[in-house]
Every structure is written in C-alpha cells, then in structure tokens.
Task: inverse folding
C-alpha cells in the first residue's frame, strides 16, 4: 500500500459560530487523485481551505508528508509543497501571462521553468504577452493552474477547475489533469462536474452537510447511481 501524503483525522472547522466540518476523516496517498464531491454548501471548499491553512480547524489532526501541520501558515504550507488553485482563478489582471508566471515562481526554492508551463499549456505560450484581464475564462483557468504547477507542488488541490467553461475547454483541461496524474502528481479535486471528476479520480469522498457520507473508488461510484442520486445533484 502506498503511504499517505495527506490525512485528516476527526477535523472540525467553523466560520465563527457556524460549525461547518464535522469530524472529517480522509486520506490521500502519494500519486493518487482524490475527488471531493457533494452538493453546494456541503463543505468541499472549506475542507481545501482547512488543508491550506486559510482556516484553522477547531479540532482534529491534519498530517502532511508524515508531519502534523498544526500552526503552519498558508505560505509555510505552500513552501512545503501544497498548492491550492482557488475557485475564483486568482490571476493578476494587470500583468501579462509571463509576468504572472514569473511572480508565481518567485520565492519558490525549485520552480519549474516558464517554458515547461508553455509545454503543458501551449495556449499560454501563444498568449504570453496578453494581460490577465484579456484572457478568456479557460485561459485564466490554465494560467491559474500553471501558477500553482510552476511551484512544483507535491500536493495540488483544484477547486472547481471546470466551472463555467465550455465543454471543449473542459476536455482540454481534463486531458492536462489526466496527464499530470499519470506522471504521478498527487491531486485533490473538487468539482460539480461529477462525470469529469469520476473519470479523473482514483477515489472519492462524498460530503453532505459537512460530513463524509461515502468513500470509495471512483469506478464503483460511477456505477452506483443510487448513491449519486442520494448525495449529488445528478
Ligand atoms: N466565509 C464564510 N463564512 C461563513 N460561512 C461560510 C463561509 N464560507 C462558506 N460558508 C458556509 O459553509 C458551508 C460550506 O461551504 P463550502 O463553500 O465549503 O461548500 P462547498 O461544498 O464547497 O459548496 P460550493 O460548491 O457551493 O462551493 C456552507 O453552508 C456555506 O454557506
């Protein structure tokens, strides 16, 4: 069995008085693609934010690469190899594609090259002189993922990477994510596009009201229409 790169044990997270995550237990093995699925508001983004250190858990343990994360800041976690590509595609609108990538690589001990990012996303190479604000939604998403990838993450977390994108762009992005997975990249993906997500993932956790209500292989869930209907908007 592969060793866990990430594990959450009995993790509880709150926004002020509002208790959102309830005793979350999950694990991600090195090289695995794990999907978090669930209806709107079930706690998927909150789980990613808790792992990234943007939200401090009220209780529970998060272990990454064999060590409890405890007080590490989001920057510290990024330095340790955790990258979150947020739902809102944070790119600098006033900077070019190339400048966005240069900035992302800064402060990273062993960044990949900008050319390597253009190999992953040839479209970004064609648009390297364009400002963030002039990119299409799909190009912004590519740039957002490239900004994380250039930092050579050990754990890449993608929050709804396909949201609002045309089917042809979704297919192109799925191909890139699939290739990264084949090359051994560990990925946690949150998506509303259940079919895309189950195609890419090895294992799945289903969340409902901040609880893990199902865990299993993506293949098994693909055939389990009953569980999908019960916990997902399909
Ligand atoms: N900053 C916040 N302050 C207070 N409550 C929040 C905040 N962010 C999220 N919540 C609440 O926490 C719960 C879980 O939200 P979360 O965003 O983690 O769900 P999600 O599964 O990612 O859903 P979505 O697909 O809508 O992003 C929801 O009830 C939401 O209203």
Result:
């Amino acid at each position: 069995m592969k060793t866990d790169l990430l594990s959450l044990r009995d993790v509880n997270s709150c926004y002020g008085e509002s208790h959102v995550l309830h005793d979350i237990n999950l694990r991600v093995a090195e090289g695995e693609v794990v999907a978090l699925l669930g209806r709107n508001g079930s706690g998927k983004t909150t789980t990613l934010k808790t792992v990234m250190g943007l939200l401090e858990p009220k209780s529970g343990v998060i272990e990454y690469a064999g060590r409890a994360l405890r007080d590490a800041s989001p920057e510290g976690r990024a330095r340790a190899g955790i990258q979150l590509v947020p739902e809102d595609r944070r790119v600098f609108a006033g900077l070019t594609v190339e400048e966005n990538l240069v900035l992302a690589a800064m402060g990273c001990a062993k960044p990949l090259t900008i050319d390597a990012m253009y190999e992953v996303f040839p479209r970004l190479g064609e648009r390297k002189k364009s400002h963030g604000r002039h990119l299409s939604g799909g190009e912004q998403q590519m740039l957002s993922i490239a900004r994380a990838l250039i930092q050579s993450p050990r754990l890449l977390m993608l929050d709804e990477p396909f949201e609002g994108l045309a089917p042809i762009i979704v297919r192109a992005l799925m191909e890139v994510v699939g290739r990264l997975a084949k090359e051994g990249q560990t990925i946690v993906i949150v998506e509303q596009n259940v079919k895309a997500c189950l195609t890419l993932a090895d294992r799945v956790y289903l969340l409902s009201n901040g609880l893990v209500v199902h865990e299993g292989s993506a293949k098994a869930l693909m055939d389990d229409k009953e569980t999908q209907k019960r916990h997902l908007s399909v």
User: Anything to note?
Assistant: The domain at 1-71+189-234 is CATH 3.40.50.300 (Rossmann fold). Strands lie at 4-15, 18-29, 33-38, 59-64, 67-68, 82-85, 155-159, 186-190, 203-208, 211-217. The first strand starts at residue 4 and ends at 15.
